[in-house]
Design brief:
This protein has 395 residues and is α/β, with parallel strands linked by helices. It has 2 domains: 174 residues, 3-Layer(aba) Sandwich (Rossmann fold), CATH 3.40.50; 206 residues, CoaB-like (Rossmann fold, 3-Layer(aba) Sandwich). It is globular.
Length: 395
Amino acid sequence: MLTDKTVILGITGGIAAYKAADIASKLTQAGAKVEVVMTESATRFIAPLTLRSLTGRPVITSMWELASEFSLEHIALAEAADVVVIAPATAATIAKLAVGISDDMLTCVVLATKAPVIVAPAMHANMFQNSITQENMAKLKARGFTIIDPGYGHLASGKIGLGRLAETEAIIGIVKQVLGRSGDLAGKRIVVTAGGTRESIDPVRYIGNRSSGKMGYAMAEAARDRGANVTLITTTSPSLSKPAGVEIIPVETAIQMRDAVAKAVALADALIMAAAVADYQPKKVAEAKIKKETPSLTLELIRTPDILTEIKGDFIKVGFAAESEDVVANARQKLEKKVLDLMVANDITDKESGFSVDTNKVTLIDRDGRVEELPLLTKREVADKILDRVVGMLK
């Protein structure tokens, strides 16, 4: 996604400037060519040598540095950019950009570029919430800039408030989303489900399964990066970070997931059911915690709704089948019963393809009966293989 993309990383003079090192490192690791442009005040917080070591590229700190291939030609740097990311962006830099002041290399590049610009503010809460700052950001949004809202937490002043620089993962997620706007799913609405549902026994206990949600999250990110508007309906997954640039709808039970899916698919082009929905739920849920002094416990279980069977509409339907035997035969039967366009089957007895791992080995079965067995891939690679099929069906 970021391979061979030129990312201009602008760093301005705030205490959060040190976090830009992680952003530069992660972008570089993802294959991007990162050109770092620092304001003079930013160099007071983090050394240019640090960024040069991480990116392998000269760092630009002045309009007049002869060491840079772009030193005397900010236009060349602006034209080379696929995207400009300013992180952190101080209130002063935001104010300059809002009124078109270009008195340093960074503001000159932004004024000259036709590439999309992403601004990640970081400052004291009072400065961020000041009406002037808010008006300036509104102006930038109106001009097509993407603003990544800061987080809430401990600030450099020692106080707690809104103004922390967004997490690196969120910033890179938005970069991928912005770069993917012209992808093969641009303008399409994709609904993805993820995680394992939980069916309550009492206020403390529940019936669940081993699904980590990793496959569903990979699907949501892959669709986002290809330009889709993505809705992710997900159960709780504390080990996974919510994908940036994706609408998140939290649910817990199978019924809640069914209702959320039914609402979300109204305008959808595709539904990808990567969630592991519990097959059964207790017929009755105890109002109080069941004491363990009870010598035995008998639960009467009833079937949960079959979401893919119940939800109907004019959109592509993709299902997942986690099987432990007769994988293809069982998956084909489910595809026909649920009237799906594509079934993704995986053998959960394979340690490299089961729950909670980052890889998957799946077999794709389409509505015409064609079977394609994929090799062991990362879940993100599997997600793109599935989306390749979805794109073909949408055409």
